[in-house]
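2024-03-11 09:14:02 INFO queue: dequeued item HTH araC/xylS-type domain-containing protein, len=288
2024-03-11 09:14:02 INFO validating residues
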Amino acid sequence: MMPFLIAQIASLENRIPLYVYCVGSHEQKELERPQGFPAHQIFLCRSGSGIFRFEDNHTIVLSEGSLLVLPANTPHSYYPEQSQQLWDLGFVAFQGKAALAMAESLEAALLKPVKAPQFSRLWEQLETIWHLINRNSDQAYWEASRLMYDMLLFTLQDISGVGRSERRSLSGGRSPAPQTPQAALAMAVQLIHDHYQDRLLLANVARAAGYSVQHFHRLFVAAYGVTPQQYLLDLRMRRSIQLFGEQPGVSVEKVAQQLGMDASYFIRMFKRTYGQTPKQYVKQQKID
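2024-03-11 09:14:37 INFO prediction written
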């Protein structure tokens, strides 16, 4: 598993024509993006299968060994094909002045699943990009951008023998509009809900919303009455209650893992929130 990472490259965005916006992989759950995503994305399915649904209710199935190119700002949702099935999904999103042309060059996989003959090589490139972004340095971001370009070219070469779909221009899709503070905060909250189980730094969420950490913090508190950190913690605590109810007999350690938290920290925060430890809570529920 590669926890979701957003690249923090504000100082390089105007200098790199193609750069990594975010990258990761995990056991994918249901996710809805009614406004789409602000960057072009490549999805790689390593195991299982899932369904992508678009604005016109058109659906496609992304299965093991396949990839999909999703244009920026395309409304969509996706979820495992079977609710109990593990859907191992990797993704990398890219932006920059050259991003549109590179994405359009992959028209065979544009909004359409395509088998990747050399899937394992693509996954290795995805993992390398993740490790570079995780280093969080200017040099690593330059290297990740070079590898992103290589990955896109390799993807084009790998699927070039696959039957072409009708050309669908990305430029005909939605064009990004300047975000109001309300829209930016709504997008940040959606990001928190989508990735509460991953490592999610406030700096990453603030950057995705288009603000400095300090300004984002002030806007968030003014809008929601709590800090972003407390909002994330409250979300995790509510989700822990659901997990204990949905998975009878599940261990405290397993629940903490599903929430992206250290077990001892989870126990401490649970007791602070609900006045009892997770084990005491579960025991009480059984008695009731």
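2024-03-11 09:14:37 INFO annotate: Residues 181-225 form one domain.
2024-03-11 09:14:38 INFO item closed
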